């Protein structure tokens, strides 16, 4: 980890008490307060994956993810928005270079948010491209400078087939436009990660310049560097970085509760002195350490492959996603166990244990870590012979 990342971690540590004290405010407002957005900008969170040529930090993968984990450990919503805000600039590298340069002409702290599910349509008309659609889960859209969605290309109301021709998957393009071109629909009333402001965003017959359409899956980067070879390969691992931090926060919370001297009803000893509690706490920590270790190992592999110029690989993508799914499941189990250990004290809105429980269950519902992705890993294993 370089000096820049160490400095960022030090800054985050100094802010932790203030952020923790505002957890209820962040949830109640269902978005990140403006001053905390400014704080994340000043720390450098939104420029971690921006190239140095454009004023960014261009951190290695492990350093950026360690910063997101540290923020997630303090507050789940802030960590989630930091992970999204750090990774989203990779989408912009698929723009034409002149458009990319214009996007960053005022500095590297451009905030990009959006959604990758293809729930919109794109049609080329005599007047140019037009986009329609609604995209859910646009985390950070309330404070973003640019928004992103994916549209299925259609002609005469029917999807256009992609590279494989008729019968193949539809042709899709990413749409990257200034935030003012989009409508934000107030839909984020949810069980967890309430402070992320992950509302729906929509476009209605919106003009889209051709140079603002991108191929975020197979497109080439307009800027050089090992970090910019692939976009999708880094999405699920960043999710792991967030969830490991959230689970560490849950473990911190149950340890803090035990250290208050709390003694549960009809129990002979305090939580801290109970061997049953100690046993369960030790078991839970072992699970979390295993999840952290696998995540860290996967991140090291991703960065090594990036340095070798081989990051863009289907097998590597499947393995990174497989790792993220397993890590997500472990982190949910950790939150569940910590909540159960907290007993009746954990159920109150004032308890961080119930908040971590809700946040991790919601995070694990994300499509990037759905258990169905194990199927791809299983197929690869069967085909090795």
UniProtKB/TrEMBL annotation:
One GO molecular-function entry: 3-hydroxy-9,10-secoandrosta-1,3,5(10)-triene-9,17-dione monooxygenase activity
Keywords: Monooxygenase, Oxidoreductase
InterPro entries according to UniProt: Acyl-CoA_DH_C (IPR013107), Acyl-CoA_Oxase/DH_mid-dom_sf (IPR046373), AcylCo_DH-like_C (IPR036250), AcylCoA_DH/ox_N (IPR013786), AcylCoA_DH/ox_N_sf (IPR037069), AcylCoA_DH/oxidase_NM_dom_sf (IPR009100)
Superkingdom of source: Bacteria
Record EC number: 1.14.14.12
Domain Acyl-CoA dehydrogenase C-terminal residues, every copy: 240-370
Signal sequence coordinates: none
Domain Acyl-CoA dehydrogenase/oxidase N-terminal: residue ranges: 17-85
Matching Pfam families: Acyl-CoA_dh_2, Acyl-CoA_dh_N
PANTHER family xref list: ACYL-COA DEHYDROGENASE (PTHR43884), ISOVALERYL-COA DEHYDROGENASE, MITOCHONDRIAL-RELATED (PTHR43884:SF12)
Name this protein carries in UniProt: Flavin-dependent monooxygenase, oxygenase subunit HsaA
Gene behind the chain: hsaA_2
């Amino acid at each position: 980890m370089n000096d820049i990342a160490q400095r960022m971690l030090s800054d985050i540590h100094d802010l932790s008490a203030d952020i923790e004290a505002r957890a209820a405010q962040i949830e109640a407002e269902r978005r990140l307060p403006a001053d905390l957005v400014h704080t994340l900008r000043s720390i450098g969170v939104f420029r971690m994956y921006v190239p140095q040529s454009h004023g960014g930090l261009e951190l290695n993968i492990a350093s950026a993810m360690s910063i997101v984990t540290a923020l997630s450990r303090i507050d789940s919503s802030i960590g989630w928005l930091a992970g999204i805000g750090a990774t989203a600039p990779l989408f912009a590298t698929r723009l034409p270079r002149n458009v990319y340069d214009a996007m960053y002409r005022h500095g590297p702290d451009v905030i990009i948010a959006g959604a990758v599910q293809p729930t919109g349509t794109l049609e080329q008309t005599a007047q140019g491209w037009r986009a329609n659609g609604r995209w859910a889960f646009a985390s950070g859209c309330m404070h973003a400078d640019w928004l992103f969605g994916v549209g299925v290309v259609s002609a005469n109301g029917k999807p256009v087939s992609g590279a494989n021709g008729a019968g193949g998957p539809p042709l899709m393009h990413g749409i990257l436009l200034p935030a003012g071109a989009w409508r934000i629909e107030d839909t984020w009333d949810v069980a967890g990660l309430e402070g992320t402001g992950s509302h729906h965003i929509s476009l209605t017959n919106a003009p889209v310049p051709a140079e603002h359409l991108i191929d975020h899956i197979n497109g080439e980067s307009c800027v050089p560097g090992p970090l910019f070879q692939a976009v999708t390969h880094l999405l699920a691992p960043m999710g792991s970085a967030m969830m490991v931090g959230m689970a560490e926060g849950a473990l911190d919370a149950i340890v803090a509760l035990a250290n208050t001297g709390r003694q549960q009803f009809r129990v002979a000893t305090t939580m801290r002195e109970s061997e049953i509690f100690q046993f369960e706490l030790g078991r839970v920590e072992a699970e979390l350490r295993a999840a952290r270790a696998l995540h860290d190992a996967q991140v090291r592999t991703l960065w090594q492959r990036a340095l070798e110029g081989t990051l863009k690989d289907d097998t590597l993508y499947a393995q990174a996603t497989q790792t993220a799914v397993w890590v997500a499941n472990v982190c949910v189990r950790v939150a569940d166990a910590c909540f159960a250990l907290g007993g009746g004290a954990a159920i109150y809105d004032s308890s961080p244990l119930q908040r971590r429980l809700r946040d991790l269950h919601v995070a694990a519902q994300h499509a990037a870590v759905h258990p169905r992705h194990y199927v791809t890993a299983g197929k690869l294993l069967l085909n090795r012979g």
